[in-house]
Amino acid sequence: MTTWAKRRERLKGTAGGRALLGAASLAYGAGVLARRGLYAAGVLKRKRVKAKVVCIGNLTSGGTGKTPAVLLAAETLRKRGHEVAILSRGYGRKAAAPEVSVLLDGRPVDWRECGDEPWMIHQSLQGQGIPVLVCPDRAKAGALAVEMYGSRVLILDDGFQHLRLHRDLDVVLVNARDPFGGRRLLPLGDLREPLSALKRAGLVVITHADRVTSAELARLRDDLDLLHPGVTVVESAHKADHLLDVKTEAKLPLAHLKGQAVVALSGIGDPLSFETQLESLDIKVSQSWRFPDHHPYTTRELKSIEDLRGGLPLVTTHKDFVRLSDDWRSLLAGEVYVLGIKLELLKGRNAWIDLLEQIAGGKRK
Predict the structure, then answer these.
(1) Best label site of 181, 260, 337, 362, fewest CB within 10 Å?
(2) What's the CATH code, domain 52-237+344-360?
(3) Over the stretch 240-264, which tens digit does the pLDDT of each residue have?
(4) For the chain, what is the mean pLDDT?
(5) Helices 66-79 and 116-124: crossing angle, nearest 10°?
(6) Could you name the CATH architecture of 239-342?
């Protein structure tokens, strides 16, 4: 099956295709600006909830690493005594899912009812008492979090373009390796909004800062200062944290696969980052399968992977693991691991904490 990404690259290869994509970008940009204008004029109303709202989002489509940032924000606030909930749209969940799905400790939910990313967030936060509410209407989910769980701080996952819900802080993630999506709007480039939208940010987090040179990082900081003078900028890296043997549910040290050859499976926005992480751990990626973001894996696909991997351990992401077909255990006879990732703040950790505390209203305990 030909993916949209492949079709778009083919279109970019011809003058006619580029003209078509450019025209579509102009139309898309006009729609984005019109929508922003309607909210600014008050024609479209913003909804408020009785809690502080921290939004984690980006300007480009995919690949900035929002989920680890959502986890870090939730853990930062929870450790300081704040009642936190996470609001997610639930991309990819089945049509028959409940209007609002709630993921909470001790309450089993099929990932298809909530989407792969909310399910992964919930699994990563097990035992911390942080509810994850999934609904396209984030204002409705937020009101429910306040009413049912006493939440005082709501983290809006991937909500920078969700203007309907008022927020108290916008945290925008910028991928150091491709910060501005070619500086063109979708579909010719990867920008969801014009770069002027960055002025709404109260905090910018540069992700994958360890993947570029110091000169490139300095240029990016200069660009950010031009786009939004004085905005607080912190630098971060996505670091491997552990390996999860999904058959035994054992959490293993990263050295468990050191020096070994493996195959990699991913359907995420930035597969190269995942594979580079493995290589940096002295784990040789002998073969990799890359699928579109949020891809639900079929029995046929897993059988093909099993036939071709030559008995090597398979390593995937947490996000991908939840989308394996139900019969994955019988199909994948060999070792299967999930690489656990965390967001590590390299510069600006105090600024990150101070801003979140300021919004939340100070340390509780």
Answers:
(1) 362
(2) 3.40.50.300
(3) 999 999 998 788 999 999 999 999 9
(4) 93
(5) 40
(6) 3-Layer(aba) Sandwich (3.40)
